[in-house]
Amino acid sequence: MSHHIIEIEHLRHVYPDGTEALHDVTFSVTHGESVAVIGANGAGKSTLLAHLNGHLLSESGEVRIGHVPVSGATLEQVRRTVGMVFQDPDDQLFMPTVREDVAFGPMNLGITGEELKRCVADALCRVDAEHLAEKAPYHLSAGEKRRVAIATVLSMSPNVLVMDEPTNGLDPYARRQLIGLLKDFRHSKIITSHDLDMVLEVCERTIVLSGGAVRADGPTREIFRDERLLRECRLEKPLSMQGCPVCGG
Ligand SMILES: Nc1ncnc2c1ncn2[C@@H]1O[C@H](COP(=O)(O)OP(=O)(O)OP(=O)(O)O)[C@@H](O)[C@H]1O
């Protein structure tokens, strides 16, 4: 049996207007791995993530979750395994209250009664949002919305967590909390972000996309030490690796 939870082979994506957003992308992710996908604006990160739970379907190439090829026929099975947190929390929250939003996923999986209550309470607790349970999602601050959006995914206990720009809009305290949460999540995770300091802390492996293609794939610290690669892909070293601007150390 393959030890890969995600396998992507020769994936290409062309949008209806002819933009080739992904070009021959191939990589796999093993159980428990934390992988960052980084790249400049327009590099293809969100397009790649959308293929992992079938929001976009491949016309050319293949995406497999476990042994299951992602296709129209396998969407339900795939989405039980892959929990996706979107870049914009408003795409994830649509019920009258936070509690109902967090309960929506597990209810669809057939969970009811006390078990459902436990799932919801546990997910809200993990993102420190129990006090928001009865609030309307559209009344929440940007950071609160993001935490609740994460809870809607955690409540389904996914084996793979996929997050598009998870630290966007978070204040430093909430960002720090989120980093703790991500480090505690023991299953596989794939994260896109321009917050390269968070990437350095959370992900042991980094894939660099440039112009829709995989430009590099390796240990995060090695990728960030490669100044030429970063320059060519319009990226910058994380601040924590840039040394002290005063003493040069
Ligand atoms: N619906 C669409 N129709 C046409 N082109 C699109 C569409 N969505 C994205 N693109 C194009 O596909 C390419 C990749 O976009 P994508 O959103 O995947 O990049 P990204 O790396 O996530 O960028 P960012 O860091 O800005 O979020 C870009 O050239 C973008 O203009």
Report on this model:
Keywords: ATP-binding, Cell membrane, Membrane, Nucleotide-binding, Translocase, Transport. This is ABC transporter ATP-binding protein. Belongs to the ABC transporter superfamily. The structure is a single chain. The protein contains nine helices and ten strands. By secondary structure, the protein is α/β, with parallel strands linked by helices. It has a domain at 4-86 and 160-241: P-loop containing nucleotide triphosphate hydrolases (Rossmann fold, 3-Layer(aba) Sandwich), CATH 3.40.50.300. It has a six-stranded mixed sheet, sandwiched between helices. A four-stranded antiparallel sheet has the order 2-1-4-5, covered by helices on one side. Helix 3 crosses helix 4 and helix 4 crosses helix 5. Bound molecules: adenosine-5'-triphosphate.
Pick out its properties.
single chain, 249 residues, 9 helices, 4-stranded antiparallel beta sheet, 6-stranded mixed beta sheet, ATPase-coupled transmembrane transporter activity, 25% strand, translocase, ABC_transpr_CbiO/EcfA_su, 10 strands, alpha/beta, Rossmann fold, transport, globular, binds adenosine-5'-triphosphate
